[in-house]
Design a protein that fits this description.
11 helices, eight-stranded mixed β-sheet, 39% helix, alpha/beta, single chain, two-stranded parallel ribbon, TIM Barrel, 295 residues, 10 strands, 14% strand, globular
Length: 295
Amino acid sequence: MLITLDTKPARPQWLRAPAPVGSGYRDLKALVTGLNLHTVCESAACPNIGECWNRGTATFMILGNVCTRRCGFCAVQKGAPLPVDYDEPRRVAEAVRAMKLRYAVITSVNRDDRKDGGAELFRLCIEAIRDTVPGCKVEVLVPDFQGRREAMEIVMQARPDVLNHNTETVPRLYRQVRLGARYERSLDMLAYAKSLSPETPVKSGLMLGLGETQDEVVGVMRDLHRSRVDILTLGQYLRPSPKHLPIVRYVPPAEFAELRAIGIAMGFAHVEAGPLVRSSYHASDSHSQAVLAVA
């Protein structure tokens, strides 16, 4: 059962992210708005939006900004999904070109209303970016596609440079945190992606501070490594609003450093761990290190 607190824990100093300001942030905001695109940076209220946007990096969120699932941690809007916009891959590629990106990250809402879970649009985005910006690396952060292996095949056939799917939390907390998802399903999809393309780095991540124990986190890390995941991200859960799951505790930086060391000792090619780490944080650096290890 999920543990909750009667009082909100005080937010520690190490979680103070800079406010999103600066010319890079303003320019990217205007570009995304002008092309009628969504970013997970905005929709999921990422604390690193100022840092990343001023560096000219962003994670594009395709298939609309309305999710068919109601996960207890996520700030993305829930409800009836929007129609699929088949011009979206072109506009994403145009944004990547305008930003002069060499590394692009594409994610999506869950689209359980579609048989392929939206896999086709991931494929089209990868192809559009490669056609428009030759040489640009493309990482995709995909949903579980309800366990449909044929959907993962569609994505992997487009040869993403990194395949990411987050497990998010420990098995005991899945019913509260990831409504509609199954832990074993996520592990299976990660392992299947790796089997389809052994040379492609596979990535997954967890949020900490929802009531899990360190032993449970280490157990998930072992499961992910057995599933042939190469890159691991560990970050602090931040409550988007009072309607979302409460923060049980703030995990100190020293504990993240300990978990990173455990992950490296297990054999992960790269572990990004820290209070403000998110799935796409320093993604290009993670990719470079993982490629060397996988090769």
